[in-house]
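My main concern about presentation is that the manuscript never shows what a single data entry looks like. The format is easy to grasp once an entry is in front of the reader. For illustration, here is how one protein appears when written out as sequence plus structure tokens:
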Amino acid sequence: MDFIKTNWKGILISLLIAIPSWFLGKLFPIVGGPVIAIIAGMIITIFVKDKSSFESGIKFTSKKILQWAVILLGFGLDLGVVAKTGVQSLPIICSTIATSLIVAFMLCKLAKIPGNISTLIGVGSSICGGSAIAATAPVIGADDEEVAQAISVIFFFNVLAAIIFPYFGQMVGFSTTNGEAFGIFAGTAVNDTSSVTACASTWDAMWNLGSETLDKAVTVKLTRTLAIIPITLVLALYKASKAKKALASSDVSNETKSTSSFSLKKIFPWFILYFIAASLITTLCYNFVSNPDVMNVVKDIFKFLKNCSKFFIILAMAAIGFNTNIIKLVKTGGKPLIMGACCWICITAVSLLMQHVMRLW
């Protein structure tokens, strides 16, 4: 009861923003519901003078529900199928991820961009946009404004990619008789799943390929999504090590240090393990359920859970947008936008180069 009294206002305002954003996202898939929700939240919050009664519910929605969204992403993700069909694209995926992280790290140091924003943009660009940011934010302790800024940067370039890439693919000479080359390109060079599917679907429509490109792109994208797990674990371990060193070197008594509440257990991203568990459940179901009727029910359940995940992400983005000072965001957004552009351009170039080296086009 106390939870409801404390949080209902924040959750309600997030829902009121998220529900129309969900439907608008279906009408405009290139933009997507998360972008619409975060922008709507940023605009609505300008007209709310006192947000103190919303704070607790907004915090719960932007943090906990975001983690639930990541967990639910695991349902419907067959690790066996992804591993088998993703082998071909693995060298490209590893190259693009490494490129984005290196570019983000270098610009963080050279341009003196805040570490959390640099990490979120680097991870979001290299793996899977909003989902990667959702998984990484609680691990590194990013606040709502940092998440909002990173999400805005990533989705801006997602929109550009979804619009430009089908025509760019034609210009550079991707095969128009099959969707393999462009599917791999879309799956590795476009950040968010919604924009990957929009981009691949456009290519299929342009050349009457059915869903060939879309199937390839989504498979590559799911393989790429798995990189969330090792990267967030590495970040968690790095944060734990850094915090431990800071504690050891601080000017506090040995008694204070020994009774400190710091532990790896407190910052470990347990929701990532639940994500893995959800994926394993999916894999077991796909491989051991032989009854077609039962399998259809299972697929319907997975589809429902995946839709819940997508809505939870939109809900969390609405909360993050509502908790964001858009004026401050605009004033400080120049450098992160440049970083996002550099990551996007370098990922695109490396994806093309690797496909050329591997003679995929």
Residues 255-262 have pLDDT under 50 and may be disordered. The chain is about 80% helix and 0% strand.
